[in-house]
Amino acid sequence: MSNSSLKKVLITGAGSGFGFEAAMRLAQKGFDVIAGVEIYAQVQTLKWQAAERKADLHVEKLDVTNDGDRRKALDWGVEILVNNAGVGEGGSTVDIPGANIRHQFEVNVTGPLLLTQGIAKQMIKRGEGRIVWVSSREGLNVNPFTGIYSASKHAIEAIAETMAYELQEYNIEVATVNPGPFLTGFNDRMFQTWESWEDDPSERLFDYSQLAFPRAQFDPEAVFATVTAVAAGEVDSFRNLEPKSMIDETKQLQQLPWERKVTDGLGTRHQAIKNAYKMKPETPVSA
């Protein structure tokens, strides 16, 4: 079973979304929670929100891409690390500018891994610890217009699985949480990043002003509960995909590249691209 003695939690990207809610719930469950936010302007806001929820949070400015912030985190005695901070860059793999590609990987992969390296070595010295990577269903599957984001999450999957093998002899637990399409605003913001691209719009392959996230989205409660439970050690499975109703579809889609022919669909528009042109932003899953 997971180690129930671990109490000090660091959650990155706790200013909103999954990280925000998991930080609140873990604090309410009695964990000693450090909530990391990207910018100083979020610190006081999160403190006020925590007070309203009667959640005892310690809030810190922690930009995972900032070396000084990562060094600062080494003084906090972290026993459970939840790597939740992330951004999403939407757009075709042949359109997204280089600066945006690099930023995607700095925030989602390089920064969190460098933070984890230092904290993991402290855990090893203590002989116990837990590392949770908030990945994505996109770390297991792909979709048009989320390929660069998906690539960063595929990288997280490789890192987390390898890390689990490397750290098992040191009693360090490693797990992933893989959210599918949930209505937190994250997916819809990802389909707006083209507005700040520094490129020549006439050279773009697609008209992004007409696109939206191509799937209806679920209520995020399932992910709030799962991230909290995995971080708390109440769930001991390595991979934790939500919603569970999408597990079979996810596994089937993982099989498709083995069966795909290079000529499949040539000359036709992929159905998911058609959906992106038809879907309205922030469409909830019908009950």
Automatic annotation (TrEMBL):
NCBIfam families: PRK09291.1. The keyword Oxidoreductase applies. PANTHER family: ALCOHOL DEHYDROGENASE (PTHR42901). The keyword Oxidoreductase applies. InterPro entries: NAD(P)-bd_dom_sf, Sc_DH/Rdtase_CS, SDR_fam. One of its GO terms (molecular function) is oxidoreductase activity. This is SDR family oxidoreductase. It comes from Streptomyces acidicola. Belongs to the short-chain dehydrogenases/reductases (SDR) family. Keywords: Oxidoreductase.
